[in-house]
Amino acid sequence: MSQTVDRALSILPLLAEGPADLGQVADRLGVHKSTALRLLRTLHEHGLVYRQSDQRYRLGARLIALAQEAMENLDIREIAHPHLVRLNEHCGHTVHLAVYEEDEVLYIDKVESRYPVRMYSRIGKPVAITVAAVAKLLLADLSEHERRALAEKLDYPMYTARSTPNPDAFLRELAKVREQGWATDLGGHEESINCVAAPIRGADGRVVAAMSVSAPNVVVTADELLTLLPLVRRTADDISGEYSGRTSAKNPV
C-alpha cells in the first residue's frame, strides 16, 4: 500500500511541470501503463488530476483549491513563535515578528529581552515605517511601481539624525535591502536602539513577514549586534522552510 501511495504522489510533481500522457507517466514511475492508468484514475476520481480532451493529464482544480485553502489557513505567527523563542534564548535580546497589512507594518509577535532594559514596542502596534528594519524588508519586496507610489505618499519624520529623510533616500535604501536580502535600523528610530532583520518567505519566494533582533547600546554595540545577522537569517530561513512546507520543524538553534 505504501508503494502505491508513493507512486500516486510521485505523479503530482510530474504534472506540475505540465500536462503528460499515460506513457510519460508510466515511464517516470517505471511501471506498466496499466498500473499508471489505475493510479491516474484514482487521482482523477478525487479531483487531483484532470484528463484533457487530448488524453493528457494535468493537475486538477481540487488540488489547487486544497493548496489555496491550506495557505489561507497557515498562521505565520504560530509557526514562527517557537523559532523566535529559541533565538531569544540563544542571544537574550528582543525578537520581533512583523507583517505588512493595509499600508502599515505591524508587530504580530514579540519575545522580550532577558536584560533589564526593555523596548516599548507592542504587538499590534504599527512600526516606524520609514526606518524600521522589518518595514524595509517587507516594502522592498513590493514591485518598483508600488515602492515608488508608497514612498511618495509617506511622511518622513526625523526621529534621529539617522532617520530616512525623503522618498529618494527611502527608495535607495529599499533597493539596497532588496539586493542584499537583510536590513538594519542603526539608531534611525531611537538613537540608542539598533536592530537587524531578515525576511520570511512563502512557497512562491515572496516575503510574507519579517523578523528582527533589537538591543540598546547599553547592552551591546551595533557592531556586536551585527554579528548575530547570520543566526537571524538562518532562523528566518528555518521559518520560511516550515511555512512553505519545504521542511518540518527543526531542533533548537
UniProtKB/TrEMBL annotation:
Gene3D superfamilies: 3.30.450.40, Winged helix-like DNA-binding domain superfamily/Winged helix DNA-binding domain. Signal peptide: none annotated. The keyword Cytoplasm does not apply. Residues 2-61 form the HTH iclR-type domain. Residues 62-245 form the IclR-ED domain. It comes from the Bacteria. InterPro entries: GAF-like_dom_sf, HTH_MetabolicPath_Reg, Tscrpt_reg_IclR_C, Tscrpt_reg_IclR_N, WH-like_DNA-bd_sf, WH_DNA-bd_sf. Keywords: DNA-binding, Transcription, Transcription regulation. This is IclR family transcriptional regulator. It comes from Streptomyces shaanxiensis.
